[in-house]
Specification:
Elements: E1 2-7, H1 20-28, E2 34-41, E3 62-66, H2 71-78, H3 89-92, H4 100-111, H5 122-135, E4 140-145, H6 149-161, E5 165-169, H7 186-202, E6 206-208, H8 211-220, H9 224-227, E7 228-230, E8 253-257, H10 268-279, E9 284-289, H11 294-302, E10 309-313, H12 317-324, E11 329-333, H13 343-350, E12 354-357, H14 362-370, E13 374-377, H15 384-389, H16 397-400, H17 405-416
Parallel strand pairs: 1-2, 1-4, 2-3, 4-5, 5-6, 6-7, 8-9, 8-11, 9-10, 11-12, 12-13
Helix pairs in contact: 1-17, 5-6
Amino acid sequence: MKKILFLTYYWPPSGKASLHWPLKMIKYLPEFGWQPAVLTVEDESFMQKDESMEKEIDPSLVVLKTPSIEPFEFYKIFTGKGKDAQLVASETISKENKSLAHRISLWIRMNLFIPDARIGWYPFAVKEGNRLLRSEIYDAVVSIGPPHSVHLAAAKIARNANIPFYPVFIDPWLNIAYYKGQSRSKLTVMIDGWLEKRTLEKSRRAIFVTETTLADYVASYPFLKEKGRVLHWGFDEEKFAGFKRIKKQGDEKVILHSGNIFDFQNPEKLWGYLKQRIDSGENFRLWFTGTVSPGVRRSISEAGLDGCTSYLGFLSYDEMLEVLAQADYLLVCAMEKRHFPGKLFEYLRTGIPILAYGDDNIEVEGVITSANAGMMLPFSADGSEFFERVDSFKTNLDLIKNFDRKVIAGKLSLILGE
């Protein structure tokens, strides 16, 4: 069996959603002839934990953990949050916070940490990766980003061992969505772009989770036309083996948004439309899991929806599935045209009607429409068209099961064999 080293910044018990893809690839790859090992950090600053994910790890899996220099620890102290404060991702980049300490911290993060604030792991990861690959023979290195600084470490380790390197781009690097509206200097962007191009040039294959992201990268780097590949984010069919929707008593209708939502993902006109429906006597409820940005919360409050909105906070994956089962409608907001929200695959698997927002996101719209799972609207829409047609949506689950992560792991093994 061939051996492969995965570099991922996030690993159980971290509650970061971005660890789900590598976790399942690592779980299923042995069935396709690849034995993984993992290199990750000892801990990370966003302290939300999902202990249930540790059950997914094979006890025989080699997992190496190293220290990392974490600037978010200094951020907490500098902004007066205190050493033990829990950071919220959407708040650390929100422009709603006008305090001088936050604005200085945000500028430093956007301009001095290149490519990102996790670059402090690079020397520790390279040292440990080099040690491992000197002592054992591995056939390939895979890295998961963001944070994209992980790709820099993986490329260095693979180069030192003279083995192929495969970066996986869950989100874009240079033009990642949360840079929108932020202040980055020309020098920072130039250096960051050089690092991105150099890393892609070193790769054997570069893997993206959407077709539109790959197409965008090919436009910038034509050499990716030959070595760019797409593997979707997907979902784990095993987790849905016993999934059943929960029927509620009464006329309450729950609209659920699961996962983080940022200021730039705010469907403001939807909140106003829901308030009109509620005022006319309908019993709508808004539920949010994960973190909700200050700007979105303010819009909901200004629409007069505070009394029918519940912020459930961070939930473990299993708890999230239990909440999904209680929803009548599922809300998702794409960041930009290349973004295929990971939660959308779980949404699709539930069969619950999906209201998606996004501008020019033809890939998300294509999947939702082909599966008859719901509809996608621009952020300028109030959502009324969705509710007028909601009874016509019936998800084609046979189509959706093509996105099972076990299927995707098999496709990854074929890419590794090219």
